[in-house]
Amino acid sequence: MRIAPAIILLFAGPATASAQAEPAPASSDGPPSAFAEGMRWLSDLMRVEVGDNSTRQIVASFGILLAALVLRKAVLVFAFASLRKVARRTSWKYDDKLIQMLESPISTLVLVVGFFLAITTLTLPVGVDLFVLRAFQAATLTVVFWAFLRFVELISDVMAETAREKEMAIYHFIPLLKKAARVFLVIIGVILVIQNLGYSVGSLLTGLGIGGLAVALAAQESLGNFFGSVSIAADRPFKVGDWIQVGDKVDGDVEEVGLRSTRVRTWAKSQLTIPNKVLANEIIENWSRMPKRRVKQVVGVSYETSPEDMEGLVDDIRQLLREDPDVHQEFILVNFTDFGSSSLDILVYYFTVSTRWLEHMDVRQRINLKIMRAVKARGLSVAFPTRTLYFEGEIARRLSEDQSLEP
Questions:
Q1: Is residue 53 scored above 50 in pLDDT?
Q2: Contact criterion met (CB below 8 Å) for 132 and 2
Q3: What radius of gyration, in Å, describes the C-alpha atoms of the chain?
Q4: Greater model confidence, 225 or 366
Q5: Distance (Å, whole) CA 335 – CA 310
Q6: Rounded to an integer, what distance in angstroms lies between the CA atom of residue 47 and that of residue 239?
Q7: What pLDDT, in 10s, does the model give residues 161-196?
Q8: What does the domain layout of the chain look like in residue ranges?
């Protein structure tokens, strides 16, 4: 096996020439010099066979390995150090991270190539040389995919930063997309490595397909959750931080969207883990996407209220709603609507500008206090359930006589 012919010929060429040439006769002028003796001894030493490999091949293999280690150190100390200095001068902050991410894969690739060249300078047994070649291809592909995974991670960070600055809805789903990309790349990398090791990927996939139905049936819940997460990422019905309600049991803030499930923090501070398959098939009410928040209530005043006072009170409530800066002015409805069982009912219907629950409740409380003051200013009272009893006949006569006898 000679995969590095230039390196081998570099060391093997002089040895062949020296083996074919006759040793030079000693000078007739005197004994051979120490230098000539040393060169002859070194030449004899390099022709010694150690197993199937000569000393020359072993020394060459060790030299290549040593050169690989030195080159790796030089790449780390000089090349990447220079790149980091250049990156510090640029305004783009991700070039520093890119250099840091590629440092380990590139240095590892230098070692892999060095080990491979060092081994190929030796005479290997039949079959071992093919194994070494395939192992080198597999190791090289692994390092390349390692670097590519880190590059994809950098791209995900750039996309997340851009989406966050532009307030894009996809920002909260980028971690989900990053996980899916990692899984996809790992699967592709494993398939290519197996193929380069000499195995038939087609037959392997065919064999997996025979049991694929059983695996699919066993993992149908997991597959359903995965496709549910894909559906959530495509439709984007909510994002991390949104307040959602799903049915009667799920009501809280979204904390994390994963490949299998979504975590929601309820108002009681418990954490719900909901399979994405369930979320994909349910009606999701996203309270955080309301442009305004509704208030609908009925204010009841007593039946002693005159028509003039009722009309004036309705106008007062309309006016205080229009003067409040936290009330949405697009739609305000205040009308005397019903004769209730124990009150005259005024329908008050408006929207708050803020959709946040606490801010909404503060605005609602402030409006209610203003309504109470408006009712009191007109000398009216808020009605409460009352009952009036009328007595007739003997009972009414006796009650009236008793009252007349009182001092």
A1: yes
A2: no
A3: 43
A4: 366
A5: 10
A6: 73
A7: 777 777 665 666 677 777 777 887 788 778 777 777
A8: 5-18+33-204, 211-289, 293-377
Query: Mean pLDDT across the chain, nearest whole number?
Result: 77
Residue reference for tokens 């106008």: 315
Q: What's the confidence (pLDDT) of residue 218?
A: 57
Q: What is the DSSP string of 2-64?
A: -S-HHHHHHHHHHHHHHHHSPPPPPPTTSSPPHHHHHHHHHHHHHT-EETTEEHHHHHHHHHH
Backbone angles phi, psi at 248, to 5 degrees: -100, -10
Q: Check: CATH 3.30.70.100 for 293-377? A: yes
Q: Say which CATH class 211-289 falls into.
A: mainly beta
- Note whether 322 and 379 are within 8 A (CB): no
Q: Is the pLDDT of residue 125 over 70?
A: yes
Arithmetic mean of pLDDT, 270-295: 87
> Tokens 């199937």 identify what position?
52
Nearest to 63 by CA among 8, 143, 101, 17: 8
Query: Which structure tokens are listed for 267?
Result: 């108002």
Q: Show Cβ contacts of residue 324 under 8 Å, excluding neighbours closer than 6 positions.
A: 363, 366, 367, 370
